[in-house]
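Re: beginner question about structure tokens

> Can someone show what the tokenized structure looks like for a real chain? I only ever see the sequence side.

Sure, here's an example I had lying around. Input first:
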Amino acid sequence: MSKVIDYYLTLISPWAYLGSQRFAEIAKRHGAEVRVKPVNFGEIFPRTGGLPLAKRAPERQAYRLVELKRWSEYLDIPIHLQPKHFPAPEALAARMVIAAGESGGKPLELAQAVGKAVWEEERDIGDAATCEAIAAETGHDGAALRAKAEEAASEARHATLTEEALARGVFGAPSYVYKDEIFWGQDRLDFLDRALAKG
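And the corresponding structure tokens:
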């Protein structure tokens, strides 16, 4: 495919969850290839001036909930504003998505399912059995994908993607990179759509 989008995200981002289906539809409509690249924002934030949610000012935390509710209602996508298992350790789930992409699986579908598991279904993606189940629900061999994700090579790949994101100027999630132009946030999907339309 001539159109390629690099999709940098953290799987527990509510914004990635809210934008995931629209993003998939936009990419499909334009015949674009999506390279799903989960990265570690625990590394990215301190190096780009960002703060993890718990360290943000109370006013910012409160407004985030307002915006999540607005977008959920606007897009008609269900969301628990404060899900039971958030934040959850996502390293295993992220590496399973990476493994899916490198083994001919469906990384975008798996990433979407993980987001839905956190924000709609309130499942604990920090639990390995839950990750396996989510993978199976998207047509993967959950146990095999987990085993591959637990290999040192998958951990190294996760770290490499994080450094790649930093080198390309990524600082927030989700970030969609097309022709080296960053579109940060699901609220910029209309701009990505226009860029893809131009070719």
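Each token stands for a local structural state, so reading them left to right follows the chain. The CA atoms of residues 54 and 61 lie 8 Å apart.
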